[in-house]
């Protein structure tokens, strides 16, 4: 356990030394490309599945071979504070572009929690890119539940100057969950629609999200969206590096 934490902290020190000028440090090693970073160096399923950073200290590495195979490890939380735990996400995949208009990707992610008794979970993903549009799917089997997610990114619509991304997911519990009014929930769906438009160097996002649960059923909600019931969110994102 200590060795894992020392490895993560040592990697983080190397990355932080470079973070003043960039969030990702990249080096070529023969036929391999190595990336170290404090932000995710890779997104999976043609860019539709992205690791998140849940703690104040996170980092990882990514090693890619020129053939298209890649392997890496991302630590969204080192667990150095009382309210966080160590999480290590390891992944293996293959990405192949046929040309500038078509490509595909597939792989697997393993989520590990060395500091707790929580069992490891796995997520399988695949993606397809056609022109500027991307379609991806992810399937995970966690303790007590199964999740299936479909992503569709239509890219930029030039005439309107906007980008459109949609997500639909199904979540099933191995054991039905009891809700506050005494009923039971065995599964639910959720979805979101994200419309993006650049404005003065800022990406403006209008997001609509919702789920098949409502009212007291929402006590069983544990999906992708921040809210169980239908809601609109406006978000502004600016990249500095």
General description of the model:
With 241 residues, this protein is mainly β. 7% of the residues lie in helices and 55% in strands. It contains one helix and 13 strands. It has a 13-stranded antiparallel beta sheet. A hairpin with a 5-residue loop joins β10 (162-178) and β11.
What layout of secondary structure does this protein have?
Elements: H1 2-18, E1 24-29, E2 32-37, E3 59-65, E4 69-77, E5 87-97, E6 102-112, E7 121-130, E8 133-142, E9 145-157, E10 162-178, E11 184-199, E12 202-211, E13 231-237
Antiparallel strand pairs: 1-2, 2-3, 3-4, 4-5, 5-6, 6-7, 7-8, 8-9, 9-10, 10-11, 11-12, 12-13
Estimate the helix proportion, in percent. Answer: under 10%
Terminal residue distance = 34 Å
- Tell how many strands the DSSP assignment holds: 13
Shape: globular
How are the strands of the biggest sheet laid out side by side? Answer: 1-2-3-4-5-6-7-8-9-10-11-12-13
Biggest sheet details: 13 strands, antiparallel
Element string (H = helix, E = strand): HEEEEEEEEEEEEE
Task: Kindly estimate the percentage of residues that lie in beta strands according to DSSP.
Answer: over 45%
Oligomer: single chain
Radius of gyration in whole Å, from Cα?
A: 19 Å
Q: What is the overall pLDDT average?
A: 80
Continuous helix count: 1
Low-confidence stretches: 4-22
- Helix and strand composition category: mainly beta
């Amino acid at each position: 356990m200590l060795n894992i934490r020392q490895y993560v902290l040592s990697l983080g020190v190397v990355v932080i030394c470079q973070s003043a000028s960039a969030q990702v440090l990249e080096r070529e090693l023969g036929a391999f490309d190595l990336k170290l970073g404090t932000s995710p160096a890779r997104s999976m399923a043609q860019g539709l599945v992205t690791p998140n950073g849940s703690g104040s200290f996170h980092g990882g590495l990514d090693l890619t071979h020129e053939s298209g195979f890649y392997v890496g490890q991302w630590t969204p939380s080192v667990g150095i504070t009382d309210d966080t735990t160590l999480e290590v996400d390891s992944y293996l995949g293959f990405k192949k572009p046929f040309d500038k208009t078509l490509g595909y990707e597939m792989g697997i992610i393993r989520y590990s929690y060395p500091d707790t008794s929580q069992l490891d979970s796995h997520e399988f993903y695949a993606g397809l890119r056609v022109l500027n549009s991307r379609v991806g799917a992810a399937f995970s089997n966690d303790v007590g539940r199964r999740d299936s997610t479909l992503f569709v990114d239509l890219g930029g619509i030039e005439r309107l100057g906007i980008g459109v991304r949609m997500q639909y997911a199904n979540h099933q519990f191995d054991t039905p969950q009891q809700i506050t009014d005494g009923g039971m929930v065995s599964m639910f769906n959720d979805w979101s629609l994200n419309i993006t438009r650049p404005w003065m160097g800022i990406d403006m996002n209008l997001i609509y999200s919702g789920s098949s649960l409502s009212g007291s059923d929402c006590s069983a909600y544990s999906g992708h969206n921040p809210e169980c019931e239908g809601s609109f969110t406006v978000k502004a994102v600016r990249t500095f590096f």
